[in-house]
Design brief:
With about 400 residues, this protein is mainly β. Helices cover about 5% and strands about 40% of the residues.
């Protein structure tokens, strides 16, 4: 049990990961006491008490978490949240049918399908069926001995006899005490970007609406420019911005550094799979429940889709910057994607990350002047470099 929630705990003695069965959220990923690294959990834990989201009932829980279109998700959210099969809000008609923000996956109960504990690794497999979308999702998480790395292998099965177009986004949300103003920064190999076309909740947007920019400098409502690598920029404000990962790269990444604790968290993924990052910040802006102006977060949401919105808006928008904004799984087919998350202790002098590279055998982290400041070994045998692609499943 994790804070009254059903969960699975994976550990290799060096790092620990906790994943919830309610919504599949990853609530913790952090170093353990061994080795002297900081035990700080970078992932966001909401300031409100959460419940299993599949138990949410609007008549009972709406007053605590808000109406179903977002309250169902918020009732159980934590840390690393999967958005599937859409990224953003349901339409009013979909909400009346019981759908909530970011699709069915983060609000349903996930079930264990396998587990394996060996001399050098531990693996957990979870699965959830999305009855409205007609999809089945499986996630396998592996920790390898002496590596501060979580290996993710995710497969989507199309249970229907027609092609399915959808959104697939890893909604990584970081929170205090890892996220601290003037002590924490985020980094990604971004190029073109666009600020959120719909403003921000309650009109409290830090950024101008629907404006193009080049990462990391984005236009504000006041007419100035602000560096989005910095966090918790404007108290009482928030923003959403969407950024295209450099098309010249085979591998993309997102990472965040807390200089005070010398702690780095990051994710590596194939740019072909996840070309977009939505950058989100909530800095005590939203007054509605359950937020109540008490939340400080920075989201780094990498996936197939740039802008969280209704499915209708996303389809009308189409491609952005000559890049697709959706994924497709063929009729009765399946699609598999692999990526990894990692932790590292940065040298004391490091204040900026200039690059993260995956070589097949290690993750190379560079600081100023592209000097390598950390090397993390990875297991090629657990990481399939070839793209698995789309395959039939019956």
């Amino acid at each position: 049990m994790w804070r009254g929630r059903e969960a699975y705990r994976l550990s290799n003695g060096l790092v620990q990961l906790i994943t919830l069965t309610g919504g599949g959220h990853i609530a913790e990923f952090h170093f353990m006491e061994r080795g002297g690294a900081p035990k700080l959990n970078p992932l966001w834990i909401p300031p409100w008490k959460t419940i299993e989201p599949y138990r949410y009932q609007e008549k009972v829980h709406g007053v605590r978490y808000g109406p179903i279109f977002e309250g169902k998700l918020l009732s159980g959210i934590a840390g690393h949240n999967l958005c599937l099969d859409y990224f953003g809000s349901p339409s009013p008609e979909e909400a009346k049918q019981g759908l909530s923000t970011h699709g069915e996956a983060p609000s349903l109960r996930w079930r264990k399908i396998n587990q394996s504990v060996g001399d050098d690794r531990v693996t957990l497999g979870l699965s959830v069926r999305l009855p409205v979308a007609g999809l089945t999702f499986q996630r396998q998480i592996t920790l390898r001995q002496d590596q501060p790395v979580a290996y993710f292998r995710e497969t989507i099965y199309n249970d229907r006899k027609c092609d399915h177009f959808f959104h697939w986004v890893q909604h990584i949300t970081l929170g205090p005490p890892f996220i601290l103003s003037a002590k924490s920064r985020v980094f990604l190999p971004g190029t073109k970007g666009i600020t959120f076309p719909f403003g921000y909740n309650e009109g409290k947007s830090l950024l101008a609406t629907g404006r193009s920019f080049h990462w990391p400098n984005a236009p504000t409502r006041s007419g100035s420019s602000i560096n989005l690598e910095n966090v918790l920029i404007g108290r009482g404000l928030g923003f959403v911005a969407s950024v295209l990962i450099d098309p010249r790269r085979d591998w993309g990444y997102v990472c965040a550094l807390n200089a005070k604790h010398r702690l780095l968290i990051g994710y590596c993924f194939r740019r072909e799979d996840f070309p977009w990052v939505a950058v989100w910040e909530e800095n005590r802006a939203i007054s509605a429940v359950p937020w109540k102006k008490r939340t400080e977060t920075r989201g780094l949401e990498f996936g197939t889709t740039p802008i969280p919105s209704t499915r209708r808006d996303s389809l009308r928008r189409g491609n952005l910057y000559d890049t697709e904004t959706f994924a497709c799984v063929p009729a009765r087919g399946r699609k598999t994607i692999e990526y990894l998350g990692f932790l590292a202790q940065a040298p004391a002098a490091v204040r900026r990350i200039s690059d993260v590279r995956y070589s097949g055998k290690e993750i190379l982290i560079s600081g100023d002047a592209r000097k390598i400041v950390a090397r993390i070994p990875v297991s090629h045998s657990l990481w399939v470099c070839q793209h698995p692609g789309d395959e039939p499943h019956g």
